[in-house]
Amino acid sequence: MAAIAARLITKLVDVQDKYGEATVVLTGGTVGIGTLKAVADSPAAPAVNWSKVNFWWGDERFVGSDDPDRNTKQAYDALLSHIPVDPDRVHSPGSTDEFGSPEEAAEDYARQLRDAAAAEHAADMSDDRPEEPSTLPRLDVVLLGVGPDAHIASLFPEQAGIREKDKTVVGVRNSPKPPPLRISLTLPAINTAAEVWMVVAGEDKAGAVGLALAGANPVQVPASGPRGTSRTLWLIDENAASRVPQQLVRKDAAGA
Length: 256
What we know:
The protein is α/β, with parallel strands linked by helices. It has helices at 2-19, 29-41, 71-78, 102-123, 160-163, 187-190, 206-213, and strands spanning 22-26, 53-57, 59-61, 141-144, 169-172, 182-185, 195-200, 231-236.
């Protein structure tokens, strides 16, 4: 987690040098939240201009806003409450306090993404500016965990969410992992990101990682589906990599 945190800090600094701001999509789970805490604890964290970082989430549990299961709440506790963020740049999916169903919350989150994309388009003075805004803003880094069943975000094997082709956000019902109601970015939305980082640790994830890197069908193995437009990184520990052919594994200086 410390190695991933160091890599993320460096990436955000590089993106800000290029664009003046950076956009990151956060994930929950042990590694995702642990990475955020490692960012907060890093002596290099002040190198990032946190007031110019846009924060989104890949998925969220459709529960009350103060529920400890909320990825948003966990991220605030681990990182966001410890750095000088701009509240207007923190975009979290809605909760049961605001919406009556995960589908309504998903529609609102998709609207937030469209609004951000439109604002980005209006501010773009470059010669290659597209005629119309996208439905998504520029996503510089998307962080994704992987479940033992190979789910990513809240896209589970064989369910409707992983099959979605058109929407950017979906409401999820009957999640096999509690809580049952969730909101999630879709695979097409995730795959607009410049870089997708798959952050995984633990022997219980080894089978999912092995299948994903073997090129399994994303409907059965959602973790095989994410592809960054510039780069896709698998940042995994030795236990999670235990079923991956060694020729596919490269260790960085921190052993990650």
